[in-house]
Amino acid sequence: MKKTIAILLVAILAVGSAFAALTGSAQVGFGANFDNNQYGFIDNSSSVDVNFVLATDSGEAAGEGDIYASIKGSLTLEVFTADDATSDNKKDGTINIVGDWGDTYFVGLGASVDEATVGGENWHVSLLGVPDGPDFAKSAIDTYDDATKKYDIVVDSDGTTKNATWALPYVKAPGVEVGIYDYVIGAGFKAEAGDDPELNFFKNYGATLYVATPEYDFDGLTLQVAGAWSATNYSGKNTSFTNKDDGKPYNAVGGSLKLGFANDTLSASVAADLGYDIQNEKFGADVAANFTYDFVTVDAYYGTNPTTGTGSKTTKDLLSAQVVTDLNSFEVPVKLTVTGKDLVNDQD
C-alpha cells in the first residue's frame, strides 16, 4: 500500500461539442511519499480522456462563485509526413503508415491540458507548474533555423525560426504559479531522501523560485522586471525532479528588465537579462535595444554567450547592429537595410 500524505488542489474539465467529447483534470499535491522517500510537490500532473470523431477541437470550462476552478484543453488528430522518419519509426501518440509513393505518413493524436487554475477576483493558482524562466532580451538581427517537431518526430528540419538569445540556466522543479494583481510568483521543490533520511535528507533535489511584475506604465514610459533562482544537485538522467535531462547539476540566479518609451513621433526600448551560474562560477548577460523615429529603425544586440544554432550552439561575445530606412514615408517605394552581424568576431 502506498503511504502518502498530501494536500491536493484539483481542477476538472468537462466539455462537449459536435466533434469531440473532451474530459480532463489537473492537480498539484504537496506532501511526502514514504514508499520512495520523496517529499515536496510530489504531484504535478494532468490527464485527458477523449471520445472523438476525426476533427480538431478545443474546449474550456470555468466554475462560478468567489473561488472557482477553470481549465482549458485541446485535442488534435492529424495526418502528416516526417523528414527523418523510416517505416519502423514509431513514437508515442502516432500510428505509422507507409505511403504508396515511398513517403512515410503518420496519424498523430495529441490531447493536452493547456491551462488549469483555481482562483478568484484578482488572484489565481496554476496547477500546471512554475513559469518558464525569464528571457526578455532577444536578438532581432541574429536568427537561426530549428527543426519543427510533432510527437517528437521531425516534420521539417528547418521549419522554425528562432532568435539568438542568452537565458539563465533554469530548472523547473514541480510546483505552482500564483498570480496576485498581475504579479506572478512561482515556487517549486521536490526532493528525495536517502535510505537513511537522518544522514542524507537531500539525496536528490530540485528547487525553483520565480517572480515577475506586471508592465508598469508611467505616461508612456513602461517598465517590467523579473527574477529567478533555481538549483538541483541531480547528476543523472531521466529524473522527475527537473525538466532537464542533460545530467548536469544547476545552481543559478538572475534577473531580467524591460524598459520602453513611446509617443507620437518615436519609440525606444531596451531589454536585458543578467545572471550568475553559481555551479560553474560564470556570469552571463545579453542586451537588446530598439529605436524607431519616423522612417529610421535601429536595432542592436549583445550577448556574452547566446544560443545561435541548433543543438545548443552558442557564440561568444555576439554583437550585431542593424539600421533600416523605409523611404515609403517620402512616397519612394524603397527600403534600405544595413546589417552588421557578429561584429566582435567575424565582422560579417
How would you describe this structure to a colleague?
By secondary structure, this protein is mainly β. Helices cover 0% and strands 61% of the residues. The protein contains no helices and 23 strands. The strands form three sheets. The protein has a 19-stranded antiparallel sheet that branches. A two-stranded antiparallel sheet has the order 9-10. The radius of gyration is 24 Å and the shape is globular. It starts with a strand and ends in an 8-residue tail after the last strand.
Which key features would you list for this structure?
single chain, 19-stranded antiparallel beta sheet, two-stranded antiparallel ribbon, 0% helix, globular
Short description:
It is built from no helices and 23 strands.
Please describe the topology of this protein.
Blueprint: E1 4-16, E2 20-33, E3 38-52, E4 56-62, E5 68-81, E6 94-98, E7 104-120, E8 123-126, E9 143-150, E10 153-163, E11 175-180, E12 183-192, E13 204-212, E14 216-218, E15 221-232, E16 250-262, E17 266-277, E18 282-293, E19 296-303, E20 307-309, E21 313-314, E22 318-326, E23 335-340
Antiparallel strand pairs: 1-2, 2-3, 3-12, 4-5, 5-7, 6-7, 7-8, 8-11, 9-10, 11-12, 12-13, 13-15, 14-15, 15-16, 16-17, 17-18, 18-19, 19-22, 20-21, 22-23
